[in-house]
Amino acid sequence: MKYDIIIIGGGAAGFFAAINAAELDPNAKILILERGKEVLTKVRISGGGRCNVTHAEFTPSELIKKYPRGEKELRGPFHSFMTGDTIAWFEERGIELKIEEDGRMFPVSDSSETIIDCFLSETQRLGIEILKNHSVQNITSENEQWLINTNNGDFSAEKLLVATGSNPKIWKLLEGLGHQMETAVPSLFTFNIKDERIKELPGVATFASVKIPEINMEDEGPLLITHWGLSGPAILKLSAWGARELNELSYKFKIQVNWLAHQNSEEILEQLLELKLKHAKQQLTKYAQFDLPKRLWKSLVLASGISETDIWADINKKQLVTLSEQLTKSEFSVDGKSTFKEEFVTAGGIKLNEVNFKTFESKLQKNLYFAGEVLNIDAITGGFNFQNAWTGGYLAAKAMTSLD
Ligand SMILES: Cc1cc2nc3c(=O)[nH]c(=O)nc-3n(C[C@H](O)[C@H](O)[C@H](O)COP(=O)(O)OP(=O)(O)OC[C@H]3O[C@@H](n4cnc5c(N)ncnc54)[C@H](O)[C@@H]3O)c2cc1C
């Protein structure tokens, strides 16, 4: 069966590309091939079932900073299609998005089904064919046509978009077409830590800066203590930026936490000496200082060799030095990782220097396009991974339907 455009992968990028291509060229015969028995499965479970569609960040130079892999390459594409365009695109189809306090954007319905319904009705309206249970097994080309073999029949098309997400199974086929793949490693995970200082503190959250000296990486943001260790945006960002290096360390490394984010141990020591004079008769553990959560303050005080009943006047300089260090550079040993709210992305995929980011076309094979997570692009959490799928899907659609 012959098509103008075949899209492999019925996920976010594949649907967005198909719909835009059909709108740009209503005569194009378009097919989506999906190996699963359902399409858009990740959209359905995304954002805890609410689908974090995009992020309220409207400056391309700021937006690209959310992509540990793809930062440089997405700069141009975001000037053509980015968050504002996504919002308008859904609005034109009757879907309003709302902004949460942290900038994440969700459908007002708070349901990913709204996005799925929109995609399914648009594909139907535009006459896009969707074949489920069609797993692509082979890709070859002959006489400027792509030949696609699936477990359920063969198809051909002039233009081919691969939007298979982070499933490495299709990578072998792409390698057969000359492409090189960056190996897959997980991104967006939390750090497993067993440590007396945080053992009794699950649920405690504060703003902190975090550093992994071994790979020379640091970040800051809300930090959350969990039953397993440390989580929250500060940790997730480190896990994304350090995805490859932390994998090489087999997720065993040391992390330094500055619970006071922007102050160093010398500055804190001076303030502790002042507090000692000011509160001489007061028990240290009784009143938290520096706006720290009370239970955290107490735990760090105890970890500095100070007892629960000690008053400020009893504390010697050495103990205060230790406390200043606990407050600004607590060291923890990480041993392993956990998944964050079941959400994860994979770092890895098509090497970015093999793709033309004006069109998302392969530089090695004419009429072969890529969009979404199949590329070696991924972002921190917040709606940025879908934005990559929308941007790539849109620009590939535009290129596949242009008359040149
Ligand atoms: C639990 C969870 C929650 C998430 N929540 C969010 C969120 O709220 N916001 C956000 O921005 N990101 C989120 N993400 C990340 C986001 O889902 C992905 O970045 C995004 O789905 C990538 O889109 P894609 O189209 O490239 O790939 P996918 O959505 O993975 O789609 C690829 C499709 O290709 C199909 N396929 C693969 N191989 C073949 C083959 N050989 N033949 C035919 N079909 C094939 C797959 O079955 C799949 O349907 C979340 C991820 C997870 C796991």
Automatic annotation (TrEMBL):
Domain (RsdA/BaiN/AoA(So)-like insert) ranges: 185-345
InterPro entries, per database record: BaiN-like (IPR004792), BaiN-like_dom_sf (IPR023166), FAD/NAD-bd_sf (IPR036188), RsdA/BaiN/AoA(So)-like_dom (IPR055178), RsdA/BaiN/AoA(So)_Rossmann (IPR057661)
Keyword DNA-binding part of the UniProt annotation: no
Pfam families, A to Z: HI0933_like, HI0933_like_1st
Protein keywords: FAD, Flavoprotein
Cofactor dependency: FAD
Sequence ranges assigned to domain RsdA/BaiN/AoA(So)-like Rossmann fold-like in this UniProt record: 4-398
Name listed for the protein in its UniProt record: NAD(P)/FAD-dependent oxidoreductase
